[in-house]
Write a structure and sequence with these properties.
The chain is an alpha/beta fold and 301 residues long. It has 7 helices and 11 strands. The strands form 2 sheets. Strands 1, 2, 3, 4, 5, 6, 7, 8 and 9 form a 9-stranded mixed β-sheet that branches. The relative contact order is 0.14.
Length: 301
C-alpha cells in the first residue's frame, strides 16, 4: 500500500549528505573526523596525515566497500568519503573491469558507462543513509580562470560532479580569510554552495579544542531543516483550515466576512487565501470590487 505523507504532516530530517571541498592541505580530512562517530573511507590514502585521526578503512578498490552492510556501520553515525573524486575513479575502474561494454575506444567510460557510474554511486550513498547515517563527501577544489576571476569547482570527473550537487543537502568550501580557515556554505558568484540552514561563514577552530565541530554544524543544519518542515506543515494546516471555511461560503455576506480575517493572517498564507477567496466567490457569481473593498454580484452579460 502506498504510504502518502500529507501536506499537513511533518517530514523529519534524520540524516543528510554534506559536501565539503577545498584545496589540498587545508584540513578537509581532519574536519571529517570531527563529525559524530565518523568512519572515514580513505580512497585518497592520506588519512595518516590527519592530526586527529579516527577510525579508517583504507580503500584499495571499489570492491572493498561495495558490499558494506548496516552491521559494518553499527558503531558509527557518519560515513565520510575521502575523496569523492577518488571514489568515483575507483568505481570507474570497477565498471571498466566488470563491464567492458561500458568503456570507450580510448579507455574511458562511454555514455552508457557514465550512466552506470552515476546510478551505482547514487544508489550506494542512499544505502548508507538508509542505515541512518550522515554522509560527508570530501572533494578537492578545482580553480578555473574566467577572465580576471577564479572560479572554484569540485575536482570531480565529467558530469559526475552534477550527481554530487544533486545528492548534497548542503555544500561548503574551506578557504583562508585573513590568515584563518573559514567554512562557508553560501554560494557566491565564483563558488558553489548550498546553505539551507543559512549558516554564516564559520571560523574553523583548532580541532583538538573543538573535536565535535562538524558534528555541531551537521546537527544545526538538520535542526534548521526540521524547523522549515514544521513551518511548512503549519502553513499547510492553516491553508487547509481556511480553504474549508472559504468553500463553505454561500452568499455575499459570508464572502465579505472572510476579507478582514484573511488580511490578518501571516503573509505565508495570506496571498494564497486571498486568491482562493476570489476564485470561490467567482464560482458563486460574485466578483471583488477593489474600489469598494467588498464583493458584489457579477453583472449579467
Amino acid at each position: 500500500m502506498l504510504k502518502i505523507t500529507k501536506a499537513t504532516d511533518p517530514i523529519e530530517v534524520k540524516n543528510i549528505c554534506v559536501t565539503i571541498y577545498a584545496n589540498p592541505g587545508i584540513g578537509k580530512t581532519s574536519m571529517a573526523f570531527t563529525a559524530d562517530k565518523p568512519l572515514l573511507l580513505d580512497f585518497d590514502r592520506g588519512a595518516y596525515r590527519s592530526s586527529n585521526r579516527g577510525e579508517v578503512v583504507q580503500v584499495e578498490s571499489w570492491a572493498d566497500i561495495m558490499g558494506i552492510t548496516a552491521d559494518d556501520l553499527k558503531p558509527f553515525r557518519t560515513v565520510a568519503i575521502d575523496t569523492a573524486g577518488r571514489a568515483l575513479d575507483a568505481l570507474t575502474s570497477h565498471i571498466l573491469r566488470t563491464n567492458p561494454k561500458a568503456g570507450n575506444k580510448v579507455g574511458g567510460l562511454s555514455l552508457q558507462g557514465y550512466g552506470e557510474l552515476k546510478t551505482i554511486f547514487t544508489t550506494w550513498t542512499k544505502l548508507i543513509r538508509s542505515f541512518g547515517l550522515d554522509v560527508v563527501l570530501l572533494s578537492h577544489s578545482d580553480e578555473q580562470k574566467d577572465g580576471d576571476e577564479v572560479r572554484e569547482r569540485l575536482d570531480i570527473q565529467g558530469g559526475s560532479k552534477n550527481e554530487i550537487y544533486k545528492a548534497s543537502d548542503c555544500m561548503g568550501r574551506i578557504y583562508l580569510r585573513n590568515g584563518k580557515r573559514t567554512l562557508n556554505f553560501s554560494p557566491t558568484d565564483t563558488a558553489f554552495g548550498k546553505n539551507p540552514a543559512q549558516l554564516p561563514p564559520l571560523d574553523v577552530p583548532d580541532f583538538a579544542q573543538t573535536p565535535d565541530f562538524l558534528a555541531t554544524v551537521i546537527a544545526n543544519t538538520k535542526a534548521a531543516l526540521n524547523r522549515m518542515s514544521a513551518a511548512q506543515t503549519e502553513v499547510a494546516s492553516t491553508q487547509a483550515e481556511w480553504r474549508d471555511k472559504i468553500n463553505a461560503c454561500a452568499d455575499l455576506d459570508e464572502f465579505d466576512g472572510m476579507i478582514e480575517p484573511i488580511k490578518a493572517l501571516d503573509t505565508a498564507v495570506r496571498d494564497t487565501l486571498k486568491r482562493l477567496l476570489v476564485k470561490a466567490a467567482k464560482a458563486k457569481g460574485y466578483t471583488f470590487d477593489k474600489s469598494a473593498g467588498h464583493f458584489v454580484a457579477q453583472q449579467a452579460a
